[in-house]
């Protein structure tokens, strides 16, 4: 997994690559407000995609796990905040 530089530490994007080709990504952000959320900040999954031919191989899970471990997201997810 490769982390792409973020904007003001609010958005993070991880890429999954195979043979120098991007095959998937996950974008997470910290939002002050999100519909249905009762806490702030809110860890938010903005986008998540894996190319069809690479699905069912655990790539999406690895992308999400990488995002969960990224501070400050790790702090949010470890406290049970999953909005």
Q: What is the mean predicted local confidence, pLDDT?
A: 78
The CATH architecture can be given as 3-Layer(aba) Sandwich
Q: Identify the overall geometry.
A: elongated
User: What is the fold-level CATH name, i.e. the topology?
Assistant: Aminopeptidase
Strand order of the largest sheet: 1-2-3-4
Distance between the termini: 23 Å
CATH class value? Alpha Beta
Summed up, the helix count is 2
Strand content: 35-45%
The tally of structural domains comes to 1
Secondary-structure content class? alpha+beta
The CATH H-level homologous superfamily: Gcn5-related N-acetyltransferase (GNAT)
Tell me how many strands there are: 4
The biggest beta sheet is recorded as: 4 strands, antiparallel
**What letter string, H or E per element, gives the SSE order?**
EEEEHH
Helix content: 10-25%
Q: What's this model, at a glance?
A:
With 83 residues, this protein is α+β, with helices and mostly antiparallel strands.
């Amino acid at each position: 997994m490769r982390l792409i530089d973020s904007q003001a530490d609010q958005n993070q994007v991880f890429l999954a690559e195979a043979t120098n080709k991007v095959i998937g990504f996950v974008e997470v952000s910290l939002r002050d407000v999100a519909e249905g959320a009762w806490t702030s900040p809110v860890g938010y999954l903005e986008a998540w995609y894996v190319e069809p031919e690479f699905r069912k191989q655990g790539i999406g899970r690895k992308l999400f796990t990488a995002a969960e471990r990224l501070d400050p997201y790790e702090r949010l997810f470890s406290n049970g905040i999953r909005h």
